[in-house]
Structures are given as C-alpha cells and as structure tokens.
Design brief:
heterodimer; A: alpha/beta; 10 strands; globular; B: Spore Coat Polysaccharide Biosynthesis Protein SpsA, Chain A; 2 domains; 13 helices
C-alpha cells in the first residue's frame, strides 16, 4: 500500500481563499492527491478582521454553515467519483488579536456541527471532541509568509497540549522544528489560499483511504511523513 | 525619426495582416481536413515526457487514452520516482486498464537537453513503427492521432507537427500565455509555413516514423540542443523529407500560469529563436504595430493626430486578435482581446531579453545556448548567475 498524499488545511472562496470549492477539488484531484480537508475560517467576531469578514460574508458562521456543509458533501461525492479522492469537511477556528501571543488558529477536521470562534478555547475543544472531530494546532510558531503569527498555543503548550491530536510541523513553506523537537504528533499542510499554494508542504499517511482510518492514523501518528510537493526544483 | 517610426508602424501592421490572413486560411483548411478519410493507420508509440504536475495534468493525460485510433501505446517518461507526476501517471494507468500504458522512470543524463534526456529511456522501450512526441500540457481531441497519421499517405512526408492553441486560462499570466500562443506564435508559424515554405516544428506535437528518426541518429542526435524540435525539422528537410505543420491545432492547457512564468518562458524562447534565426530574429520587430505606435506617440509628445492614428492601429490589431481567437473556437476569450495591447508591449520588451543572457541553468550546470541552440556547459556553479533561469 503506497502512502496517501494529503493536505488538511485548504481555504476556498467560502472564506478568504481565491479559488472556489469545485475548482479546488479539481486542482488537487488533477494533481493526484488522495485526501484533502477543506477548512474555511470561522472568525471570532470581537476582532476587526472577524467583523469585516462577517460583513463581507467571508467567514463560516452559524447562518451559512448548513449550506457550506451541503456544498462540501456534494463536492466530496464528486471528488471520490471523479478522482478517487477523499474530501473531509472542516473549519479553521480563527481567533485573531493585535497581539500574536494572544492569537491562535485551530483546524477541526471531520466536523458535523457548527462551532463558534467566540467560545472560550476549552468549550471549543469540548464541542469538537463531542463531534469526534480531529483537533490540529496550525502554524503554531513564527512563520515566514504573509500571515499574522499565531503563538498562543505554543506559549501555553503545557496547558493545552493534551487537547491536540496533532500540530502542524510545516505550513506552506515554513518548517517548525520546535514542534518536531517536542515529539508532538505532526501534520504538514499548505494553508492553501491561491492556486500556486499547491506547491508546499504536505503529509503522507500510511493508511486506508477512509475518514476513520485517516483520523486514526493522524492520532496514532506512526509512520506519518511530510513531503515538500514541488513542481521541479530551482536547479531543474 | 518620426518618418521612420511611422514606416515601422505601417510595416508592422501590414505584417500582422499577413500573419492574420495566413492563420485564417490555415485554420479553415484544418477544419476541412478533419472530415477526410484516413486510410492506413499504423501502430503508434506516444512518448509523454513528464516533469511536475502541469495544470489539469490528469485530464491532459487521460485525453490520450480516448484517442479514436486502432492501435497505440502510451509511454509516460519520468526522471525520478519523487516526481509528483508519477502518482498521476499511475492513476491514469489504473483508470484505463484496457489501454497499453507503460511508465518508464530513469534518471538519464546522456545529453544536455532535459526533455530529450527524459524521453530517451522511454524511446528505447517504445515498440511501434511510428513515434509521437507530445508534451504533458497537450490535450488533444479524439481525432488528433488519426488526422496526424493521415499526412503520411504522402510517402515523402517525414515529420508532422501541429499548430498549438492555448486554452483554459484563468489567471492574467495564463491569459497572456494563451494570447501569445494564439495571436503571435500560431500566426507566425502559419506565415512562415504558407508564405515562405519554412515549416516550423513545434515540439509539443511531433509524429515521425521510427525508422526515419533512427536514420537521422535518433534522439541521440539532438540531445545537446535546446530547440530539439527545430533541429529535428531541419534534419528531416535536409534528408529530403517533407515536414508538415498540420492546420488542425492541438490544445495546450495553461490555467494558473503567473505573469512571471509567462515572462520567464518567453524570454527563454526569445533567446532560443535568436540563437536559431540570427539576424532574421530582427524581423520579429515588424510584428508589433502597437509598440511602434506607442513610441511614435511618445516621440511626438502626444500629438493629437498621432494619438488618434495610434488608437486606430491598436484597435485594428486588437480586432485581428479577437477574430483569430474566435476562429480558434476561443469565443469566450475573444472579448479579452483588450489584453492584446498589453501582451504586445510586454512582448516588445521581452524581445530585447534575447541579448541580455544566453545562459540557462539546469541541475547545477550553467549552459550556454550557442548557434543553432546547441548547448555548451559553461561551468559548474553553485549559484545562479544574473540573467540565468531554469530550463524546462
């Protein structure tokens, strides 16, 4: 059995992505991916970005969550039929504040019901656990690309580490060696917003291609590998 | 000075009209040809050199599994098992068990041309008497191979290439790329072929008898040339064989190309054309009335009459571009002919890039493009030199 090529951190035009959901499915399917998770932002409403995102309808909220899930289900069916690719529904709980030490983003994978980013973190984790969703700390350390750094969980890792099923050890082109040095379970994702973000860090999982096997493999984290998905190197 | 510029504007507009007329006529002939009876259809080996995941790679590769042709094999050629295209090639093979598909992975470094190196092991494994070399971003119609083979009913024909049509663009860079292919490269190829009897072989699609290629030295003979397509065409001609550019355009897919990628690729192509054409490269300056009009406007400090005349020239060129895009079946893109003047100005700037550097970088080696596009190693260098870019 060859390892599954996976990306669990992908945005679409449902939030701040530049590519719509069907096109995202085609981009990944055409490139031979086995598993993807769509994780559009759920913003906290007490931040300027969150308030503007809500006003511009660029966030997943309680009101549009059912339609979001409906489109994800339709596209998941198409992805499997056309490409044999598994699509897992998810969101990125996005709590942005002026201070990077207070900001944090978390992926909830295989989510069934809406979870508000306005809840305190313990409530978010409890709600996600009740739904048997996977909880992943994303870009937990300093990054080199355009995003606002989100360091809250890294600064408070002793307090929160038990809540996470995995930590992003790599995000887009950034590699967080501190995560691997801490022996946390790992994932590597693209944080896809634009088509060229396809070429970025990815995860290879040695498991069967169904949602439960993928979740179990991430939790167990044995044999998980990361790979830089490149379209040729600078020297080629 | 103004007179010279006005002459250049008029001459360029006339050259564009000739290009347009040639392309219009050629595309009409291509439509008629599609309906013809095809006669004998020998088995064909299709070589697909793969490197990385091009836009819509799965669809592109699968389109070759749906060709309306009795017997052919597809040989996917890759240089390493870590290439992401390998996963896609395997999926295509699994999805089409009834098709004869083989995947050849070998890190061949026989020559200096990366594409030729990529194909050499696949070529050795190919078994049919006809060989089609087809780039990975090509997505043909089902009748493509039948049409291409039909040219060999003329026993003097040695090599068949195709016009290329850029399709699928979703970004500005991809639209510029498609327009460059559709409104500059394609009409230029038609003009050279129809008016000057200089068939220009485009490497995206080349069909030939294996025996003919072997007689010319096989792929080995072109492994050190960057423009292996042009060199093959020349050698077939010198050997007394006809080289045909089919008027049925083959689709090349560019969806998400960036403006930077567009500029980079065509700077490289310009260097290649300069190395092949020499002084004739300067004739390309006579295909850009928009740039000359702008220079005329600038040199007359925005004189009203000159400005109005420039507007007419730009509108005329954009109209020809729009008509050609519509003729190519790209009706939805035709209204984007307003991008034509932008492409024209970028192409004018890019024309000069041929003189900036003649080097390309490949796998840690700096290679110089010399006369006839022959590659020569310059030095083993740890870092890129200014003006050097990746080949491929």
């Amino acid at each position: 059995m060859s390892a599954l090529l996976c990306d669990f951190h992908i945005h679409t035009t449902w939030s701040d992505g530049a590519v719509d959901l069907p096109e995202v499915v085609d981009i990944y399917g055409q490139a031979g991916f086995d598993v993807i998770a769509i994780t559009d932002h759920v913003y906290n409403s007490d931040s300027t970005i969150g308030a503007w995102a809500d006003r511009l309808n660029k966030t997943i909220a309680a009101g549009n969550f059912p339609r979001y899930m409906e489109e994800l289900r339709e596209e998941a069916d198409r992805a499997m039929r056309r490409y044999g690719m598994l699509l897992i529904p998810g969101v990125e709980i996005t709590k942005n504040y002026l201070s990077k030490e207070a900001s944090a983003h978390v992926l909830l994978l295989d989510l069934q019901r809406y979870v508000s980013a306005d809840l305190p973190w313990p409530d978010i984790f409890r709600d996600a656990r009740e739904q048997r969703a996977l909880i992943v700390a994303c870009h937990p350390h300093y990054t080199d690309h355009e995003i606002h750094d989100t360091l809250y969980f890294w600064k408070n890792r002793q307090k929160y580490e038990a809540h996470f099923d995995a930590w992003e050890v790599a995000n887009r082109t950034d590699l967080f060696s501190v995560v691997s040095l801490s022996n946390y379970p790992i994932l590597a994702n693209s944080d896809f917003h634009k088509a060229h973000h396809l070429y970025s860090w990815k995860t290879l999982l040695p498991c069967r291609k169904d949602v439960e096997s993928v979740k179990e493999c991430i939790r167990d984290n044995r044999g998980v590998a990361i790979t830089m998905f490149r379209n040729g190197t600078a020297r080629e | 000075m103004i007179l010279v510029l006005e002459f250049l504007v008029a001459a360029s507009l006339a050259a564009c009209a000739l290009q347009f007329g040639s392309a219009w006529k050629a595309l009409g002939a291509g439509r008629q040809r599609k309906g013809e009876d095809d006669g004998e259809m020998p088995p064909v080996s299709i070589l697909k050199p793969l490197k990385g995941v091009d836009d819509r790679l799965l669809d592109n590769l699968e389109s070759f599994c749906r060709l309306d042709y009795p017997e052919y094999e597809i040989v996917f050629c890759l240089q390493g098992a870590s290439d992401p295209a390998l996963r896609v090639a395997r999926k295509v093979k699994e999805a089409h068990p009834g098709r004869e598909i083989s995947i050849v992975v070998a890190d061949c470094r026989e020559g200096l041309n990366p594409k030729v190196n990529n194909m050499m092991p696949g070529y050795a494994a190919a078994k049919h008497p006809f060989v089609l070399i087809s780039d990975s971003n090509v997505a043909p119609d089902p009748g493509y191979l039948r049409e291409a083979v039909s040219h060999f009913r003329d026993p003097e024909v040695g090599l068949v290439s195709h016009l290329v049509r850029g399709v699928g663009a979703r970004t500005l860079g991809a639209r510029l790329e498609s327009q460059h292919l559709n409104t500059f490269i394609l009409p230029s190829v038609c003009l050279l072929d129809r008016m000057f009897s200089m068939p220009c072989v485009v490497g995206k699609s080349m069909l030939m008898r294996r025996s003919d290629l072997e007689a010319l030295g096989g792929l080995d003979a072109v492994k050190d040339y960057l423009a292996e397509d042009y060199i093959l065409g020349e050698r077939f001609r010198r050997a007394g064989k006809k080289v045909v550019v089919s008027s049925s355009p083959v689709n090349t897919v560019n969806v998400y190309r960036t403006v930077r990628q567009f500029l980079s690729r065509h700077a490289r192509w310009n260097r290649m054309r300069f190395s092949i054409a020499g002084p004739a490269y300067f004739s390309e300056l006579f295909t850009n009335p928009v740039a000359w009009s702008l220079l005329t406007v600038v040199s007359t400090a925005g004189d009203g009459d000159v400005l109005a005349a420039a507007g007419v020239v730009v509108a005329a060129k954009a109209s020809m571009d729009a008509a050609l895009l519509a003729r190519l079946g790209e009706r939805r893109e035709a209204w984007r002919a307003y991008l034509g003047p932008l492409r024209d100005l970028l192409a004018f700037g890019l024309w000069f890039s041929a003189f900036y550097s003649r080097n390309v970088e490949w796998r840690g080696r700096t290679l110089r493009i010399t006369r006839g596009s022959r590659l020569v190693p310059v030095a083993e260098t740890p870092a890129m030199e200014p003006g050097t870019e990746a080949a491929g």
